[in-house]
Design goal:
mainly alpha; 2 domains; 4 helices; elongated
Amino acid sequence: MTNQPEKPFFDDIVAALTEIAEKRDDVKQLYADAKESPEIGKEGVKVLRAAVRRHMMDAKKRKLEDQADDLLHRLGHLRDTPLGEAAMARAAE
């Protein structure tokens, strides 16, 4: 038996964290590449990030987000936007 029982765990954790950091750098580079793409650009990357974040949510959190979106919609969240104003005018016809 070794007097350092933590050593294998320590080594595995350091290796895993190093791998995570490398993957994080890969993701950062992918977003940078997307931003430079004429088809996506800076604004498209914002949408891409939001879509990825939402996709990666667990089902409970995604359901909560959907419920919050539904509530905002029911409360007339878009009422003060041009689209909301047009919808309100049309509804009043």
